[in-house]
Design goal:
Helix content: under 10%
Number of strands: 11
Low-confidence stretches: none
Strand content: over 45%
Largest sheet: 7 strands, mixed
Structural class: mainly beta
Order of helices and strands: EEEEEEEEEEE
Oligomer: single chain
Distance between the termini: 37 Å
Radius of gyration: 14 Å
Shape: globular
Length: 118
């Protein structure tokens, strides 16, 4: 199974971007899909996650601005990012997680760079 992320780029503060994560095979291979980000000199952090049952959670820093969604027919997960701020600048990673084990198994896509700057 492979995850292919796309959609990053340079955007001005207050602008919008939509990230996409295409899953080879079925998106239902995973119990949860999510987006993480890693800014320079910082740890990778969870941005948003959606479970196979439709439960969604967001990092406090993006609530009200970012929206995660999934298109099961296209095996794709999206992250709509609005009202972007310079502090949103980071490499964004798509994640697929298998749970129901002692230790969850994570699959990662390649990162896509989002730069918010004027």
């Amino acid at each position: 199974v492979q995850l292919q992320a796309s959609g990053g780029g340079l955007v001005q503060p207050g602008g919008s971007l939509r990230l996409s994560c295409a899953v080879s095979g079925s998106i239902f291979n995973f119990n949860a899909m999510g987006w993480y980000r890693q800014a320079p000199a910082k740890q990778r952090e969870l941005v948003a996650r959606i479970t196979s049952g439709g439960y969604i959670n967001y990092a406090d820093s993006v609530k009200g601005r970012f929206t995660i969604s999934r298109d099961n027919a296209k095996n794709t997960v999206y992250l709509q990012m609005n009202s972007l701020k310079p502090e949103d600048t980071a490499v964004y990673y798509c994640n697929g997680r298998l749970t129901g084990r002692a230790i969850p198994i994570d699959y990662w896509g390649q990162g896509t760079l989002v730069t918010v700057s004027s």
